[in-house]
Amino acid sequence: MNTGGGDAPGLNAVIRAAVLSALKEGWRVFGIENGYGGLLADEPGEVVPLDREDVRGITHRGGTILGTSNRGNPFAWPTTGPDGSTVDIDRSDEILEAFREHELDALIAIGGDGSLQIACDLARKGLPVVGVPKTIDNDLEATSLTFGFLTAVETATDAIDKLHSTAESHRRVMVVEVMGRHAGWIALFSGLAGTADVILLPEIPYDIELVAEKILERERRGRTFSMVCVAEGATPIDGEAVTKAVPRGTGSQTRLGGVGEVIAQQLAERTGKEARSLVLGHLQRGGTPIAYDRVISLRFGAAAVRCVARGDFGSMVSLDPPEVRAVPLTEALASRKQVPVDGDAVATARALGVSFGD
Ligand code: F6P
After folding, report:
1. Is there a common fold for 2-148+289-321 and 150-286+340-351?
2. Which of 86, 119, 242, 277 is within CB 3.0–4.6 Å of 259 for a Cys-Cys bond?
3. Would residue 238 show up in a list of annotated catalytic residues for this protein?
């Protein structure tokens, strides 16, 4: 098994359940370190045997004991060209070859949309794969939840609760930027739970003038502070999502991020109030998974082993309450699961007076 893409609370619980279930079948289990890197001799990481004692006491631990990577796509592996530039090359055949050399019979690939797309492409090349959906963004179709999402929501809600103290005491506008990529699930759920006054989502383009008007309207009612929860992928009606360059080696890569600061600046100018922003960033991916995420993770790990036992390959385990089922990977990857703008959660927020800036 391997873990790919960004870490998420619950990865270790999946690993533990999969290892213990597989050992019970009488199988030997191996972990591929650092995504697919452990299968390639010139990359850090190895293929390591996983036994009962290797997964002892890890259910509650954040991160992944196998390590992960969001740069290890075997179909577009970044290598350094002769002139020092980065060139992506296809190393998928090497992965299949290494898989055979290690005498592995099946792969449980735990990851988000990127990692599961890789798993799907490897399945097309004949690798027997079962996917396990992971991402704090909760943006995968065909599963009602991904593990890690609810823990991220808990972290973001806690932050919004704490920021209320300063917002209220200093009569400020506080803008909290949360993760989620191009889906607004974390912003919507934590904004609702933390009683934000404004929630900005990628799914609902915002007009900054309407956001400012909401804050001024609160001011007129004697509410001298406001809390804005913005998804990193939120976009204004007349513009694009905000991105920034983050350092990687001597170069950089582009990531979503920075919209919170832009909004704080714009709101300060339009309302005359003091406005501050906070980016929660990777705090949302770390720490102890909450109990429900642990339970989903353990169920996913055990279900993935049942899929392997049945020979149900090219599939992904999925939560379809109250059951965990298997769905074809192609179905799971067909589209991104975004917040339905006419759905109940958005309607609830609107009924409570939350502004989406529209
Ligand atoms: O997909 C999970 C996620 O945390 C997103 O919410 C975020 O945009 C992205 O990963 C950040 O990735 P990285 O850690 O590579 O900057």
Report:
1. yes
2. 242
3. no
